[in-house]
Structure prediction request, 280 residues.
Amino acid sequence: MALEREEWVSFSQLVRAGRNSIEPPGYHAMFFSYFDDSSDERRERYFACGGLIGGEVQWDMLDVLWHAATPDLEPFRSTECECRQGQFREWPKTACDLLMETLVDILRRCKLSAFASIVPIADYREVFPKCARFDPYYLAVRHTIINTAHIGCSGGHHVRLCFEDNPATTPTTLKIYNELKAINWMPALHLYGISFDSKKLCPLQASDLVAREAFKHIDNRGVRRTRIPMKRLSERSAFILWNREALMHLRDNGGPANIELLTSWEKTKPPRMPYFYNNF
Prediction:
């Protein structure tokens, strides 16, 4: 089922866990979600966990259109396309730009909804000086799964999640999912499975594009104008950026492992996190 305009407004309202929202829910669609990560090469600035949410019909449509647009690519990776690296190193810039335009057109035509959680790495490491390499990403993962569960619960439907399989992060991502499933929290009942797959899946290629755009949007703030793909996707995108104040609140109340805090964030009075939607 495609989301109409009024349903999208409700989707934005449902992106909770970091937003003090009191608006009533109104999202009604059976959906599946695909997520990927993005960061700078040295993982020094931001970690983004981002992807797309939609119904089965929407994903079926994306599969057909994406395959048709990328017949000789195994698989499409947005960073390679933009930077003309890897399989795109012989492509002229105009061809790369045209492909990105086509793929963004497909996301818009399928009316998929984008969400991303972005964590500033330097702030995270300063607030949590003993953190491990991927801990900022795992906070974004928790945040993303919690928001997806909220949306499924509000619509009364099950949610299936899929992340790109990464030997370095898959075991902990699965552990986070199982921890959320194990607590006494109503939205967790709507989490109906998690899987891990390769970029050969078109939905994960599309999610790679969204995660990169989320990272670039935050990384470019105050430096460059909003990127064209992000402008075109903004109507159906909702991003949340963790700030230092929110990270300190998390630290002072049990840290990222305090799932109870994360699942009831909007019911407490923590610092607000920057929230971006429909205003890129």
